[in-house]
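Ex. 9. Protein: ATP-binding cassette subfamily B protein.
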Amino acid sequence: MLRDLFSPFRYKPILDNSGSNESPLSRNKKPKVKNQQQTLKRLWRYLAVHRIHLILVIAMVIISSVLSLLGPFLAGKSIDHYIVTKESKGILKLLAGLAVIYLFTSVTLFLQNYWMVGIAQNTVSKMRNDLFNHLHKLPIPFFDKRQHGELMSRVTNDIENVSSTLNSSVIQVISSILILIGTISVMLYLSPLLTLLTLIIIPLMYTGMKWITKRTGRLFKIQQRNLGDLNGFIEETISGQRIVKTFSQEKKVIDEFISKNSKLKGAGFWASAYSGFIPKLMNGLNNLSFTVIAAVGGWLAYKGHISIGTIVIFAEYSRQFTRPLNDLANQFNTVLSAIAGAERVFDILDEEEEANDEKNMYDFPYVDGRVEFCEVSFSYEEEGKTISDISFAVSPGETVALVGATGAGKTTIINLLSRFYDADEGSILIDGKEIKKIKREDLRKHMGFVLQDSYLFQGTIRENIRYGRLEASDEEVERAAKLANAHSFIMKTPGQYDTVLKQDGSGISQGQKQLLSIARAILADPSILILDEATSSIDTITELKIQEALQRLMEGRTSFVIAHRLNTIQKADQIIVLSDGQIIERGSHHELLSQKGYYLGLFNSQLRKI
Ligand SMILES: Nc1ncnc2c1ncn2[C@@H]1O[C@H](COP(=O)(O)OP(=O)(O)OP(=O)(O)O)[C@@H](O)[C@H]1O
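Predicted structure tokens for ATP-binding cassette subfamily B protein:
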């Protein structure tokens, strides 16, 4: 029965990503701890920009802390001087004094909060900008290896964590330290003996706090990691909703979510539970200190060593004394959790940008479109070669089709040509210039992509086409749409060119998406074109429209076609047949058929399927 009462909170060891079933509380399972001091230093660099406002905040905190110490002191002294002696004028003076103190306290509290919120918001906004900026300079391999939702969690949750801590904790920490120093000083001045008795609780507090924070620090990190993991999973399953439903995998997805969620709950529960012990511990120690002061103070007053007013001041200060300690302890957890968040943000900022490290880069204002691969080898992983010893040359305006079984290396060749990855060996030349010596931005300016999964952004049809060349006029956008055979379907949509597409164009058909992406490429007017043929079946009429639009687009441009259906590439100038990352056959369609090799087999097998 009792067990059941606690069952929702019982902690079950939950499998970690590593597959270990050790509890997050386990001593040996520390997540990699980066130097917290270094993280704080980097955070400080962001804060230091606002140093004038920080000085103002500190000044306000000092004034409000002194004022809050003054209140109880005046009240205690007035008991001895005015209340015991029944002097009514003095009492009025005291009341007026207290009113002024509380008014000033409110003003200083308002100002310190106002400035601090400004500092916090500006700081995290700058961090968010830096992070987003940096994310866009990171190489494709970085994104290939990470869950996108997890990255989003860093830009949103982790930065938010830093923001809320800056909002509240900086003021709390400074004012707690000041109040603590002020309280102890006044207490020492009034009665060193009672002060010493009050301070006895400090070692007890320290030991208790150390025990708790050791655990919470570790748990907050695990909690944030698990939250990132969960966010990644949510993002993945929402964007892959169609696949989940098509394969009826709802149960599997929900089960996996429950498992990840319960992992998060495990760490979250214990992180919160341990930090929740802190106020209870403080409260208990506070009561202990209060009892000691009442007993010893009462005895001293009975013996005539101190006044009643002093005991009142002491009782009030002993409360004020544990409150900042309590606050400091609570803030410690919040700060730890923010440091964990900041660390995750800095981790990304430390990732190396897509390198443009070579000096003496070529200018690349105009491209004829001659492409050469010379003995190129590359691997995604340390071991083995994804493609090896690839050599071929393409003249300007030629169409090259890359053919081969799935995983043969077709996309990899394109990844290397567009410098999403750099070749390990050999060289790739455009117009005789080594592409490693061309800035990626300049290189990609001359390349156009029409991919299977043409990505459309949330925005109007016009904006989506204009993504190909932002400065294009409305007339140019429409001309491109007409050449891409997209104009007639656009005119049938409710807002025509101003129809707003949902994110990833989920409101229009696959074929229409392709037409828009062709229009975008026509507008961009690249010299080198990459076409990744759609594998999904599109109705015959749309298919014809797409083929016609593609022919127009390819005219006069060096085009690489990743071909999945051989009937569409028969007119290609060259067909390169790949197998296991190597070129096994090469030639025109007729030459390859007459070679009676792998291509002929592939062609016949596709013919049989028709
Ligand atoms: N980012 C990556 N990290 C590690 N390995 C990868 C990565 N991308 C592709 N590979 C591997 O490299 C090999 C070649 O892949 P590639 O995508 O070039 O094949 P493909 O011929 O384009 O296949 P498909 O027709 O299925 O698109 C495959 O074995 C694939 O698993």
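Check your answer against this statement. The chain has two domains: 38-349, 371-609.
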